[in-house]
Amino acid sequence: MSEALLIVAHGSHLNPKSSTPAQDHADAIRVAGAVDEVREAYWKEEPSLRNALRTVTADEVYVVPLFISEGYFTEEVLPRELRLDFDADDWDSDGTSADFVTCTPADVAKTVHYCGPVGTHDAMTDVIVRRAETVTGDPEVGAGVGLAVVGHGTKRNENSAKAVEYHADRVRDRGRFDEVRALFMDEDPEIDDVTDHFESDDVVVVPLFVADGYHTQEDIPADMGIADGAGGYAVPTRLDGHDIWYAGAIGTEALMADVILERAADAGADIDRSGESRTPTAAADGD
């Protein structure tokens, strides 16, 4: 029986870069030949979630949300738009442990394995480390370096912070970096006090956002004080006696394609890994 991978993302009518990570990772998976059929769909762009399952040829579909945290979008919006008989209680998740639920769509005769978001998968910890390697150009980065894992944070969804704290704890437990902190835009501890949280001379800042947009390219650099006034920032930027290496959105890192595949594999997908070839994206330079 043939299988399909459906990558679902937010998309945006205002930010053309919003859909770029989903497109890039889907293309990488297609080129690798890891899955029989690969599709993307978006909440705010075409192709739409509403019609997504109708475009899939395979009878068995693995749906992987390209989102960072569990919550409103992964538990309400996406299942509703895909017309799945989904109940978030079936995940039995503590906010970071959603796995997958096998569902039947209301309008098409397919079996859908609806997966938890990529952002809470354990493999995302590796992507954070890879992002630090990419932005610094140092495959051994860690000793003498601090790492800030940054999330949006919101009182409306406690799981937003949980995902960030979860991966910060996992990186810290590896003992690779001298200091690891979880920081946020909209709750304490805040990213605008980034240098108050580190003694290390070099601090790598990795935002857990899927796409580069207003938050990652304007808000966070401005909050940290590294924005140059011309819509960019230098990497590194000297700030309060520290060198700040700002990596940009983690979702643009090429290794994210592997996390998508891991999510599908965990749900039972037959992944062909013989053609995989991943190379890190270029380091973010603020341009």
From TrEMBL:
One matching Pfam family is: CbiX
Q: Which InterPro entries does this UniProt record tie to the protein?
A: CbiX-like, Sirohydro_Cobaltochel/CbiX
CDD domains named in the record: CbiX_SirB_N
Q: Which GO terms describe its biological process?
A: cobalamin biosynthetic process
Tell me which SUPFAM superfamilies the record gives. Answer: Chelatase
Q: Which UniProt keywords apply?
A: Cobalamin biosynthesis, Cobalt, Lyase, Metal-binding
Q: Which GO terms describe its molecular function?
A: lyase activity; metal ion binding
Which domain of life does this protein belong to? Archaea
* Record-given protein name: Sirohydrochlorin cobaltochelatase
- The organism named in the record is Haloplanus rubicundus
